[in-house]
Amino acid sequence: MPSRTSATSAKAVKAAGKSSPSRKTGKGKIPGKKRETPWALLAAGVAIVALVGLLAYSLVPKYLDQAAIREAQTDLKEWIPTKENQDPSTKIEGVVKQDYEPGLHVTAEQRVAYDKSPAFGGPHDGAWANCTGTVYAKPIRMENAVHSLEHGAVWIAYNPDKVNADGVETLSNFVKGRQYSLMSPYPGLDSAISLQSWGHQLKLDSADDPRVKQFISALRENPYTYPEVGASCSNPIFDANNPPPFDSSPYGPDAVPMDGAGLTPDAAELGGANGSGIPGLPTIPVPGGLPSGQ
């Protein structure tokens, strides 16, 4: 028979068990602080991602554009003129060549009865079209453009009805900011594209034709193929935004003939460098002439 002491101990243990914290799941835990969402940190992260995306959207196309320009303006080594190979363009299929007398100048009011369209030599205006990598949005007067060719420039003319926006962009990459280069629309051109240097012309159907780069590599500032070696292509007086307009109307009886009859060759331009003997320092004629007394 259990003793009174044992019975009392059992009751004490049982009572203690009832008073101890429950071990059931979810009961008796110390309440924790509710975790807060770091909205400020998340907002900062989103802002950073958006900024990176914006920079990429803005800078990547510009980088690709610059890369395209660099590639377009890197001459092809096999087409660069040398003393032994003075006119590599003779190997380009479709190039037309013709000799012209240099230094025959007309005034801003005169027209020349050019026998080629576009012209690539012959009498021309005393003021040259700025050809420091200028991409003209408007058609330009042919008499000014031909003088640029006499200075060693390559002129890219294109028919705006035959070359789409992508083609115009492709062509402009050959020109943008590049010395001795210019480009302009030429309404009514009988081909999509026509490349001109002094005494040379190449007509093409596509801006992606590899002969575009071949022609430029061979003839842009080629000292063996143009008369006024050392002359500058810069003419700050020539307004690129509002150039003398292109005139496509038929020539009248007063147009200057291609042989320059009645014109006296400008001695200042014979022998290169505008006769100064200092390459790159020619005089800069003003379209239309200087005002009286200047």
TrEMBL record:
Residue stretches of biased makeup (Low complexity): 1-22
Spans annotated as Disordered: 1-33, 242-294
Protein name: DUF3105 domain-containing protein
Keyword set, alphabetical order: Membrane, Transmembrane, Transmembrane helix
Domain of life (superkingdom): Bacteria
Protein's organism: Nocardia lasii
Keyword rRNA processing: no
Statement: the UniProt record of this protein carries the keyword Ligase: no
Source species taxonomy: Bacteria, Bacillati, Actinomycetota, Actinomycetes, Mycobacteriales
